[in-house]
Design brief:
The complex is a heterodimer. By secondary structure, chain A is an alpha/beta fold. Chain A contains 14 helices and 13 strands. In chain A, the strands form 2 sheets. In chain A, strands 1, 2, 3, 4, 5, 6, 7, 8, 9, 10 and 13 form an 11-stranded mixed sheet that branches. In chain A, strand 2, helix 4 and strand 3 form a beta-alpha-beta unit. By secondary structure, chain B is an alpha+beta fold. Chain B folds into 2 domains: about 40 residues; about 90 residues, Alpha-Beta Plaits. Chain B is built from 6 helices and 4 strands. Chain B has a 4-stranded antiparallel sheet. In chain B, strand 2 and strand 3 form a beta hairpin. The chains are: A alpha/beta, B alpha+beta. At the A-B interface, helix 1, helix 3 and helix 8 of A face strand 2, strand 3, helix 5, strand 4 and helix 6 of B.
Chain lengths: ~450, ~140
């Protein structure tokens, strides 16, 4: 037999019991050649181009799924940040484009299409300002469009004007989608150091240095890591790191195989594999459970940040060894609403916003899917975004904020979206003002670290 | 150099003609590959280490009872699948069987065989998974 009995059973156990799946195969499509003076022509060009590359995306992914017996949870599409090719558009025209994207996504049969984005870390053009203003309407009037805005980078610093604008956009989006628990905010990410090849929606976009079209893959698999740690038992931390690495190595290899095969079937180049541990609301598919299995009583206990840092590092190291095309976020995700263990910890008050913030300094993304009271002032949201941006900018890493100031909800309430977005308890926000700080506007200069040349 | 689909089809047709009555799927594949390598297009199509075989790993498990191996192998035989290796273990009342099968000479593709086998699995009240060999190769071999 070319493979050991145990090896084969291990793979079957991962896919059948431990929820190992490929979290997403994301088709990145450049829209840079779609601009026209006539908005109707522009819309048609966009629609045609997305359909041209994407029409068989779902079908091809399904075929690869059944061939290898590994399920692919999401098939998605990311686009050139819309503000770049269509910089001359007005708010109304951007809205028209958003609706076109929604229609194209529906036609292809995917749940989300991402890239309604702008990169404004240093400053914004008139078009970018229009796009940002249009976000609340775009997210409330479409179902599938996801938006992201990059407001800071290590090279450029932190654009506080953009952050203040985004805080207002978030509040307005929450209000416009109040009938569905402010779901619009779950489709809007504010980034620092956004990456160009991230396959994970809602923050995905097809960066300007990317090729015409590319296929990126994001792996998942907290359940597999959890069981491996459980099986390892009481070993020291070095041995534990080894156990995590071995497991991640295997799932990264499988992820790369799936990505390459889907790309091959679509006849397009393969981009990267994002070796992120992404939880889902399914029981046992949780990062929080991994941290608890590592030895902390609950997420939020002292030691949580260290455990997460170690997990994140082991994920990266194993992923780098397993694939030469590692990219995207590549680390552990800690979205609150999408992780049963995190939901429980937040609900009983073990996990505070401040502890989460500390954790984001050592994991791959940031404050993700956090619900806060609907009456949280915009300036406080701007403060939270600027804190998170500072962590990203100073540590030269990506951070993001996906915060939901749930309209009309208070502490003790829940927002519940069902499906992959899950459900989040409203978390407490410190009732202290930062109005006079964020209200100064301008830009926090780029740190020392930016002067590397 | 990247070969177009029509060019590959032409090479394949030539190979079939050349082999005449001797043509079997394996021989045709071998001849076509040689031709492509000669023209320099092989670089793209047969990247080293990325050659997909027609081998599939079948894993089945469930409560032990008479007729399971017979049921599974009969269905595979009917589909013209070649069983290249087989190993089985019993743990109490549970059995696990793993087979390496070659489906390249079958008239059916992997999806159709998977459908066939899921019928067998339902009849025997066991679980059967069929996965292309590559996934195991990628995960367990460097």
């Amino acid at each position: 037999m070319p493979y050991e009995f145990e090896e084969i059973l291990e793979t079957i156990r991962m896919t059948e019991i431990e929820h190992f799946d490929i979290r997403t195969v994301t088709l990145g499509v450049s829209l840079r050649d779609c601009h026209d003076r006539n908005i109707e022509v522009t819309k048609q060009k966009i629609y045609d181009k997305i359909l041209r590359y994407g029409k068989n995306h779902v079908k091809n992914a399904r075929e690869v799924e059944s061939r290898f017996g590994i399920s692919i949870a999401n098939k998605r599409i990311s686009l050139t940040p819309i503000s770049i090719p269509f910089d001359s558009c007005s708010l109304e025209e951007y809205l028209e484009i958003a609706k076109t994207l929604d229609k194209a996504a529906e036609e292809i049969g995917i749940d989300y299409i991402a890239g309604y984005s702008a990169l404004v870390q240093k400053g914004m053009t008139n078009g970018e300002r229009e796009l940002i203003k249009s976000i609340p309407y775009a997210l409330s009037q479409t179902k599938r469009v996801c938006s992201s805005v990059n407001v800071a980078s290590t090279k450029a610093g932190i654009n506080m004007d953009a952050i203040r604008m985004m805080a207002d956009v978030i509040k307005q989006t929450a209000e416009l989608t109040k009938d569905r628990d402010s779901i619009g905010c779950a489709k809007l990410v504010v980034f620092a150091n956004a990456v160009e090849d991230n396959p994970f929606v809602a923050g995905a976009f097809h960066g300007v240095s990317e090729p015409e079209v590319v296929l990126n893959v994001g792996i998942s698999g907290p359940g597999v890591v959890l069981d491996a740690i459980k099986e390892a038992g009481q070993v020291d931390l070095q041995q534990l790191a080894e156990v995590i690495k071995k497991t991640i190595f295997k799932i990264t290899r499988a992820g790369e195989l799936i990505g390459r095969k889907v790309a091959e079937k679509n006849g397009i180049p393969f981009g990267i594999v994002d070796i992120s541990l992404a939880p889902t609301p399914a029981e046992g598919d949780s990062i929080a459970d991994i941290l608890k299995m590592m030895g902390v009583e609950d997420v939020g206990a002292p030691g949580t940040t260290a455990a997460l840092a170690m997990l994140n590092d082991a994920v990266k190291k194993a992923g780098l060894m397993a694939s030469s095309s590692v990219g995207g976020m590549s680390g552990a995700f800690i979205p609150v609403s999408e992780d049963q263990g995190m939901i429980r910890a937040a609900q009983v008050g073990n996990l505070s916003l401040e502890k989460l913030e500390a954790m984001t300094a050592v994991c791959s993304v940031g404050l993700d899917m956090i619900a806060v009271p609907g009456d949280t002032p915009a300036s406080t949201i701007a403060g939270i975004i600027s804190d998170e941006s500072a962590i990203g900018v100073i540590n030269d890493k990506t951070t993001a904020v996906r915060i939901i100031p749930a309209y009309g909800k208070k502490l003790g309430d829940f927002v519940d979206y069902g499906g992959l977005l899950g459900k989040a308890p409203i978390m407490e926000v410190r009732n202290l003002s930062c109005e006079n700080f964020v209200g100064r506007g301008g830009r926090i200069p780029a740190p020392m670290r930016s002067l590397t040349n | 150099m990247k070969l177009k689909e029509e060019e590959i089809r032409k090479i394949t047709l030539d190979a079939i003609q050349e082999l005449g009555a001797n043509a079997t799927p394996e021989k045709v594949k071998e001849t076509v590959r040689k031709k492509i390598e000669e023209t320099g297009g092989g670089e793209y199509i047969f990247k080293k280490g990325d050659v997909s075989s027609g081998r599939v790993i079948l894993t089945s498990f469930g409560l032990n009872k008479p007729g399971i191996v017979a049921g599974v192998t009969k269905a595979l035989g009917d589909s013209n699948c070649d069983i290249q290796d087989l190993t089985q273990k019993l743990m109490g009342d549970f059995f696990t069987m793993i087979m390496v099968i070659d489906i390249s000479s079958s008239q059916k593709d992997l999806k159709q065989i998977q459908e066939e086998m899921s019928k067998v699995a339902d009849d025997l009240k066991i679980k059967i998974y069929l996965q292309h060999e590559d996934v195991f190769r990628y995960m367990h071999r460097i």
